[in-house]
Amino acid sequence: MPKKNSKISIRKTRKIAEAKVAAKKNSDSKLKIKIDPEISARAKLYGYWLVLGAVVTAGLIVVSSFFWDSTHKSGVIVPEIVDNAVVVNKSVIVPEIAPDQVVVANAVSLSSEQQAALADEYFINGKAKQDSSINPDLRGALVDYSTAIALNSNYAQAYANRGQILSEMGDYANALINFNTAIQLDPTDALSFYGRAVAKTKLDDWSGAIVDYSAAIESDAASRFVYSFMEQPNLYSKRAQLRLWTKDNIGAIQDYTMAIELGMEQNRYYDFAGRAEAKMAMADFAGSILDYTYAIQGVADAINNAATSEDQDVLSRTAMGYYETRGALRLKRNDILGAQEDVSTAIRISIELGDHERAISLKKVLDAMDNIQ
Fold first, then answer.
1. What is the CA 55 to chain-centroid distance, rounded?
2. What are the pLDDT digits (tens) for 7-44?
3. Which residue in 22, 38, 91, 347 could disulfide with 364, CB within 3.0 to 4.6 Å?
4. Residues 317, 318, 322, 324: is their CA dihedral positive or negative?
């Protein structure tokens, strides 16, 4: 009898070891999942990856742990000191955004009303250069906005627009200074709060960004009806993502729910995925599985309606990540068949994408699950 038990123990130990080895190898290939399309289009895709570590305990299969990268920041950039930035009369002067010195010098003899009118002209010119759909001239727009500010130091919208361009250029530190000034001059400007929230996110000030998104959400600004990114569902979605990153999972779930409910006519699969991640962090595995199911359905519709094959590939990779994660959750709940089905689907997608290395890794995970049944 002792001999027989020893053999059973050896078999179990071997299966456990095989499962862990396969899981470890799979974790080396890290899949990044697109959560927020707007942010991800400008920077790194927000991502997390799972570790499938299966062990046998009393005949039940459980997942030992899930893990997602603590550096999922959608391209967050660590702030850098801008040595050549000088604040003079509320104006931020750096080489790229210096005003037209000739215009400013000649304007000295003008009355304050005439200077304000001239500032409006330069603001309009800058706006046209910034918004040009054919050939936008962002640096030219910066010069015009800086000139408008030099002529009228209280020009809140010029500061805000200059902050937007600097943010697009990746100069988040100077963008933040401009948005701060714009908000000081006009505390009701929701666009400035939005822009500052984006800059703070890039500078790792997530708590500050949450406060600014909250201000934008509570605003009744007309800009909400002009810019799609200012629509309530999108603002709630962005704040939800930040709350998720700061481990405020309850707040994240509430915000993702608001984004989903307010955007019912939109395909917000990424909000379902975000809410699923928050629920997973709270060990609500059943709720997370349900939300990943909605996310999978939504991303499938997005793939069918994608304009280009490149978009289809990005969305397909996102779908593959959703299937992997849902498979891990199903394994956690001892739904072996469901887990195998999801991993098998992920393998099929990876093959269609030509990601054979990923397919091999997933196949090893699938084999490991077969071995420990």
1. 34
2. 444 444 444 445 444 444 444 433 333 333 333 322 32
3. 22
4. positive
- Distances from the Cα of 250 to the Cα of 208, 247, 258, angstroms: 18, 9, 13
CA atoms of 239 and 339, how far apart (whole Å): 32
Q: Which of 302, 297, 298, 276 is nearest to 287 (CA)?
A: 276
- DSSP, collapsed to helix, strand or coil, labels residue 88 as strand
Helix (H) or strand (E) holding 57: strand 54-57
Closest of 21, 15, 18, 22 to residue 361, by C-alpha: 22
Which of 118, 98, 122 shows the shortest CA–CA distance to 107? Answer: 118
The model's pTM = 0.72
Q: Phi first, then psi: what are they for 220, rounded to 5°?
A: -105, 30
- pLDDT per residue over 300-323, tens digit each? 999 999 999 999 999 999 999 999
pLDDT at 359 over 90: yes
DSSP string, 111-129: -HHHHHHHHHHHHHHHHHH
Which of the pair, 143 or 2, is modelled with greater confidence? 143
Measured distance CA(16)–CA(149) in Å, rounded? 67
Residue 86 bridge partners (DSSP): 93
Beta strands in 98-231 (DSSP E): none
Q: Fill in the amino acid letter for 20.
A: K
User: Residue 60 phi/psi, 5° resolution?
Assistant: -110, 145
